[in-house]
């Protein structure tokens, strides 16, 4: 299930590449580099804007600041009543819990669908697929009413508990696909030896599934980190805010005057995602290519 | 077929033979349902229950403080006949879907085809093109976009220094505000591009070899080989991206300061629904809006699936 990037030596593609005249290869590379540059330029510009002197931000389109000034990071970090340190900590806690919940609950469910036989399996599987397509708006208000009645509004529970109940059907689907690819002989042999379903799940399936578990974990982290809608609805107390809510509050309060600080915190908020991207780039891209993740 | 020869985890399930549903359930389904328990609880509490309740709420007036008050079809009648904001949000959302999805997919396919030519450095290019997709959902990127397209932002600086054009304030001009969001959507063409790339690699190269020998131009090869063989992936991407576009919320919220302005020009459907529910606490009305959205998405999906047999190519 890997998508090898490079053409293998001797393959048709390699031959095709070799036959192509040099000028055409150069042309393709020039086009790609130009496009990459246009795509990435806004990101680089934001990074550069976050370290340049305040008065220079909107007077120059160039990427190279006249002087490096890290002051915006300090101003931004303490720009609100509550420091961004708190927001980062909150985001990390929520994202980490979401990762644990998703990986555990979705793999349990996926194991049942991929390996166990039970009455009504096809029915439940179809229901699971339908929930994939359901727009969240349809369940939004009753969920809010439910969490309000439970007294969970203004806590992180509405953002975390559903993950422990496998509410992200997408990852169930992802894992079912992967589990089905694991040779059945392995768990059948284990069962002959008297292993329970639980032990097969825990001792055989999970260790063999680290790629898909890691993919689910990384995507869950990134999506939870980026999530704006959930925290916007459920978190009202600034001490509970996530980074995304902090950024939004920043744009409302000081954004128009302190663009440096706003950009600095925006860049800071992207750093964890960017680091995950650097480390797990291959995993993420394979995850998308094999399952069609939406973003 | 004895159990020893054909073990299944649901031991006993097969030996019962023609037993009734309930006894089969009781005999072999234990472990399955045990593993399914968390998901089933979630399904009933967070999905199925709420769907039923949401449908009920859509026929009521409900402000969270007092009990829902049954009003029959009144919410739907008002939405469909006398709500200018509903019409505005429909217009904005359909324009967004209609332009951002095809443009995004066209870019994705074009770049994927360039990358599929056996070039060096594919991994790096692919990663760079994918990066905006991964970061794009963040509030930080919406903030960046607002700054780039502001009156003295990056775009106007570039227009001025390269062409001497004095650009408008894109974000605050109702004529242009939506198009900055379309641009933001198209900028994130990375993930459909990766899916296209995976699909392109499945097309056997000898088909192109044969076509080249017959003298077919690259243009003709695209229309006669690449596109037809890729239609299942086009189909998949169209469905996923369209549903996502219908649900789009965060960029419009950040760029318009939560208001959907200027003059409702960025009032996305999801944003309007949010306002009704959480700014004005008209929960019944917002539920009705949600059901209309569900109907629209279902109709779109149904049309796509029904039409697919006329244009999606499946292996014979």
Automatic annotation (TrEMBL), chain A:
It is found in: Cell membrane. Coiled coil: none annotated. Its main location: membrane. SUPFAM superfamilies: MetI-like. Keywords: Cell membrane, Membrane, Transmembrane, Transmembrane helix, Transport. PROSITE patterns: ABC_TM1. Gene3D superfamilies: MetI-like (1.10.3720.10). Residues 88-280 form the ABC transmembrane type-1 domain. The chain crosses the membrane at residues 26-47, 87-111, 123-144, 156-179, 200-225, 262-285. It is a multi-pass membrane protein. PANTHER family: ABC TRANSPORTER PERMEASE PROTEIN MG189-RELATED-RELATED, ABC TRANSPORTER PERMEASE PROTEIN YESQ-RELATED. This is Carbohydrate ABC transporter permease. It comes from Mesorhizobium retamae.
TrEMBL record, chain B:
The chain crosses the membrane at residues 33-56, 94-115, 127-148, 176-200, 221-240, 252-274, 286-306. Coiled coil: none annotated. CDD domains: TM_PBP2 (cd06261). It is a multi-pass membrane protein. Signal peptide: none annotated. It is found in: Cell membrane. The keyword Phosphoprotein does not apply. Keywords: Cell membrane, Membrane, Transmembrane, Transmembrane helix, Transport. It comes from the Bacteria. InterPro entries: ABC_transporter_permease, MetI-like, MetI-like_sf. Residues 90-304 form the ABC transmembrane type-1 domain. The keyword Transport applies. Pfam families: BPD_transp_1. PROSITE patterns: ABC_TM1. Belongs to the binding-protein-dependent transport system permease family. This is Sugar ABC transporter permease. It comes from Mesorhizobium retamae.
